[in-house]
Amino acid sequence: MRQHRELERDFLRPSRKVPCVRHLFACSPEMLWAALLDAESWPAWLPVTRVTWTSPPPFGVGTTRTVEGPSGMISETFHEWIEGRRMAFYFFESPLPVRAFGECYDVEPAPGGSMLAWRFRADANPLTRAALHFALRRAGKRGLPKLERFILRHQDRYAQ
What is the DSSP string of 75-120? Predict the structure, then answer.
């Protein structure tokens, strides 16, 4: 496992260097947020096998979790949290050859439901960075519609 550096707040701010995948969901922002907090929803839409929140609720800045997938186990630390609207984390440890890596999920109300903007960025050599950004764009474009279908199939689980 490699340890990665903590991110500055501006690392994931919208810019040309920060890829972003957006998806309009046919559900309320509250339902979408609840699904993002549900560890069981993540394997339904991303190529991961398990997500485990390693901090007790309520979640916020400093919360930790682990994600298991094809590349091994990743330890994440949340460094930004606006309940119901934004969660952003960085990799604390992972087997990936990066100096730093982070993701940000922004949820906003939108006509007919909610909008999710998923931003991610790697600090790595140019080839690794390009490969990771390509893979995550592809995962988002394929996965976010799967997340929407998952939420709609499990509305009772996420209704507030």
Answer: EEEEEEEETTTEEEEEEEEESSS-SEEEEEEEEEEETTEEEEEEEE
How confident is the model over 104-131, as pLDDT tens digits?
999 999 999 999 999 999 999 999 999 9
**Residue 16: which H helix or E strand, with range?**
none
Distances (CA, A) of 54 to 22, 32, 63, 94, 157: 28, 21, 8, 16, 22
Domain of residue 113, residue span: 2-155
| Peptide linkage before 57 cis (omega within 30 of 0) | no
Q: Please name which of 50, 47, 116, 61 lies closest in space to residue 90, comparing C-alpha atoms.
A: 61
Provide the 3-class DSSP secondary structure of residue 33. Answer: helix
pLDDT in tens, 53-71: 999 999 999 999 999 999 8
Query: How many domains does the structure of the chain reveal?
Result: 1
* Rounded-to-integer distance, Cα 146 and Cα 41, Å: 10
Note whether residue 68 is domain-resident.
Answer: yes
Query: What Rg do the C-alpha atoms of the chain give, in angstroms?
Result: 15
